[in-house]
Design goal:
The complex is a heterodimer. In chain A, strand 7 and strand 8 form a beta hairpin. Chain A has a six-stranded mixed sheet, with no helix packed on it. In chain A, strands 1-3-10-9 form a four-stranded antiparallel sheet, with no helix packed on it. Chain A has no helices and twelve strands. Chain A is globular and about 40 Å long. By secondary structure, chain A is mainly β. In chain B, strands 2-10-9-4-5-6 form a six-stranded mixed sheet, with no helix packed on it. A four-stranded antiparallel sheet of chain B has the order 1-3-8-7, with no helix packed on it. Chain B has no helices and ten strands. Chain B is mainly β. The chains are: A mainly beta, B mainly beta. The interface between A and B is medium-sized, with 24 and 20 residues.
Chain lengths: 113, 116
């Protein structure tokens, strides 16, 4: 099974600053035939179902603010939240859908400093 | 509007069985893969199982393989998760999710507690 390791487990960022979350995969999730990375990012606020932010490693879902961006390829990926807002307080997860079981990372909790 | 609504959760004893259901609406259910994802109390997300649109291909997490069975009824727009020989560690919120890559639509979840 593919293991996704997120870092850090938690971070506190001042309002308006940048939050950076890393996700490292135990094997490449880049599919050579289409050159897509089969990786997604989710946001989960307390008491709510997860919300998809980014698919294919860097494609922002419609309606997601452009302060959220995804980057990386192969085994190393990053979710960046620029200009952090109070409503961004949540747990963020990466997920690979390259090879079943479609595993999730352990999550990163983002708080306001 | 796409909707998936889970039901069937509750309290079950270790070794017992439970069947979860998911009612789907607002999309052509018979053309989509469907997935179950769970989240234990205070824990992260865990992918549980998925099933192809025609019902002929299933996938399972190692932690549930041989105990849980995913199925669907395309005529009823319904997804199921039969949980047998449940364990305390199966205690979780169980989410029904539309799709197989980048999950846009999630239900609100149904809670399963395994305890004696």
């Amino acid at each position: 099974d593919i293991v996704l390791t997120q870092a850090p487990d938690s971070l506190a960022v001042s309002l308006g600053e940048r939050a950076t979350i890393n996700c490292k995969s135990s094997q490449s999730v880049l599919f050579s035939s289409d050159n897509y990375n089969y990786l997604a990012w989710y946001q989960q606020k307390p008491g709510q179902s997860p919300k998809l932010l980014i698919s294919w490693a860097s494609t922002r879902v419609s309606g997601v603010p452009d302060r959220f961006s995804g980057s990386g390829s192969g085994t190393d990926f990053t979710l960046t939240i620029n200009n952090l807002q109070a409503e961004d307080v949540a747990v963020y997860y990466c997920q690979q859908y390259y090879s079943p079981p479609f595993t999730f990372g352990g999550g990163t909790k983002v708080e306001i400093k | 509007e796409v909707q998936v609504v889970e039901s069937g959760g509750g309290l079950v004893q270790p070794g017992g069985s439970l069947r979860l259901s998911c009612a789907a609406s607002g999309f052509d259910f018979s053309t989509y893969w469907m997935t179950w994802v769970r989240q234990g109390p205070g824990r992260g997300l865990e992918w549980v199982a998925n099933i192809r649109s025609d019902g002929y291909v299933e996938g399972y997490a190692d932690s549930v393989r041989g105990r849980f069975t995913i199925s669907r009824d395309n005529a009823k727009n319904a997804l199921y998760l039969q949980m047998n020989n449940v364990r305390v560690e199966d205690t979780a919120m169980y989410y029904c999710v539309k799709g197989n890559s980048g999950y846009v639509h999630w239900g609100q979840g149904t809670w399963v507690t395994v305890s004696s």
